[in-house]
Write a structure and sequence with these properties.
Layout: H1 8-30, H2 39-51, E1 55-60, E2 64-70, E3 73-84, H3 111-128, E4 132-140, H4 148-154, H5 157-160, E5 165-173, E6 180-181, E7 185-188, E8 190-199, E9 203-204, H6 215-233, E10 240-249, E11 257-258, E12 261-270, H7 273-288, E13 294-303, E14 306-308, H8 310-324, E15 329-330, H9 342-348, E16 351-359, H10 381-395
Parallel strand pairs: 3-4, 3-5, 5-16, 6-15
Antiparallel strand pairs: 1-2, 2-4, 6-16, 7-14, 8-12, 8-13, 9-11, 10-12
Helix pairs in contact: 1-3, 1-10, 3-10, 6-7, 8-10
Amino acid sequence: MGAGTIDGSLRAGIEAVLPEIVAIRHDIHAHPELGREEFQTSALVAQKLRAWGIEVAEHVGGFGVVGTLRGKRPGQGAIGLRADMDALALFEQTSLPYASSNSGRMHACGHDGHTAMLLGAAKVLAEDRDFAGTVQLIFQPAEEGLGGAQAMLQDGLFERFPCDAVYGMHNMPGIPVGRIALRKGPFMAGSGRWKVCFSGTGGHGGNSAHLASDLSVVLATFVTLLQTVVSRNVPAIDTAVVSVGHVQGGSPESLNVMPAELVVGGTMRAFTPPIQSLLETRISELAARSQGASASVKTWWNAIPLVNPGPQVQTVAMAARTAVGPEQVDEEAAPVTGGEDFAFMMQAKPGAFVFLGNGAAADGSVHALHTPHYDFNDAALPHGIAYWISLVRQELTT
């Protein structure tokens, strides 16, 4: 941590809890759970919070946990700090001593680190409670496209646990450890999904192909035309992404049979509602133009665009400068097309979102999020903890 940026007692408090927080992070990493299945993770979070004297509510929006921590100084303010808990359906290839023990499940996005950092901040804050008002510690399930934020909101998150503002943080590989990145305005894209089911006659590919509606040609034409959506329909000054991620049709055991049904799906990203609407419209229009086949189209958004408002950006920038030093704060970070359902919480309450540097591997390589060699960097833990505590002390002063 940057020398002289935070007081010595806080630095000592963070260093004192680090061994336990690292152990918690490794435990969560070794036992990853998918969204809506966070049995062990949410139980661990609740157990730790209770052990530290923090009021706990479980099963908020399913597997969500909220810890309510009240300061010892008078004050009516309240803020929410949010961390996500779920893992991904991925086979880990790190060979770490604490690698996943659940085959086909992996913490490849760093949610183990996010949970550990918020727990670390909770423990340090609970030891002296030197702030005014209330901190709501929000541990969210099912961030990876499964509606965890919406589920907590529908379960009365901010009615049951009032907040004046809510804040989020995500690690970012490639950004140096100890650095915090943010920006005012659109910061993360709306993350959507689309799926098209083409239906035709099917047929014998060797004997009567001329009598069948060939869905392979329909698919090839559709995927080719998809590439024109961003290049020719989205204004050049805007950003959008449309990608194919899944194709299914026919059987590898019947290569002479032309399928009667073929499914293709993928993702779409946009930073503004008009571009979101445009992508949905064009995907549907292109699917409907397919000759010799009928098409059913489904589009939906797992996350809306995340936009950092001005006042809260100033708040988090000040907290970041205090936590890691002014030279380690990038206030003009580039937007990313990754999606984040924390945007739904920011739609309900003012807030802001930042990236925390996860650094690079010892050999200089960077293992990106959602890849089998990724691991959250334990060296980032004290910086994230310091940021959360700095934010609390800044927001809840009177």
